Amino acid sequence: MTHRPARHYNRLMRFSLALLLAPLAAQTLPSYTAYRAATPPKIDGRLDEPAWFAAPSLKLREFPWHTQGRKEATIVKLLWDDENLYIALVAEDRHITARHTERDGKIPEDDCFELMIAPDPAKPEVYFNLEWNVIGGLVDNFRPNGPSQPRAPKWDAEGVRVAGSYEGKPNDDSGSDSHWITETAIPFRNFKAYAKSAPPRPGEHWNANFNRHGGAMNPQYSQWSSGGTPKPNFHTPHRFGRLVFGGDSRPF
């Protein structure tokens, strides 16, 4: 039997470990800083307040399950104050589907947007998901024991406001639409029992992801942080990005 010197063995192990970790290094989780709203935005689906113009944008760049069709762009902005998390969305869409308005209805069949949020980073598998369309349909769920266990039997977020607007003719696939917009306010009180502080303190972060899917025509799946699963699955809390709550206000 040939015995290799320990020094050579250690170098070999370090090299092997570097190869194993290389793919993980390429999968850096995204981070976004949401600034405080100097004045609460009016939830009307218009996005014409100065705070929205001043807020930084993030884009849903990941299309992990794309097979065909146009990859439609989605731009998201966030703000917050002591009462609410505010989310603005502009979604490019040539064929807008929007039919469902009932609470916890078939919103995923429409073109829709979804927030996944874990309010305590120390407990990343305790998370919520809220999903809405341009006409105000809302689905909300709570996963107290992670994605592999059943969701809470009944959880309804209180005080959520959604307003939308669009350019085009929804549900008429003979034409070509342009885009849809939603403006949403989600009260922090919904997460108070599961967060270290709600509202969060400036500088704190929660784990979050943003997803888009649905629609009768060209039903793309897109994400802020890719879940990395072989089949469509948004319930991947280990892949959520960081939503940082900045202390500065917008506009300045």
Instruction: Please state the CA-atom Rg, rounded to the nearest Å.
Output: 21 Å
The CATH topology is given as: Immunoglobulin-like
What gap, in angstroms, lies between the N and C termini? 72 Å
> Which strand-content bin applies to the residues?
25-35%
Please state the structural category: mainly beta
The percentage helix is under 10%
The protein's oligomeric status is: single chain
Largest sheet, in brief, is:
12 strands, mixed
- Tell me how many strands there are: 12
* Annotated CATH architecture: Sandwich
Give the SSE layout:
Blueprint: H1 6-25, E1 31-37, H2 50-54, E2 57-59, E3 74-80, E4 84-92, E5 112-118, E6 127-133, E7 138-143, E8 161-167, E9 179-187, E10 205-213, E11 222-223, E12 241-250
Parallel strand pairs: 1-3, 1-12
Antiparallel strand pairs: 2-3, 3-4, 4-9, 5-6, 5-10, 6-7, 8-9, 10-11, 10-12
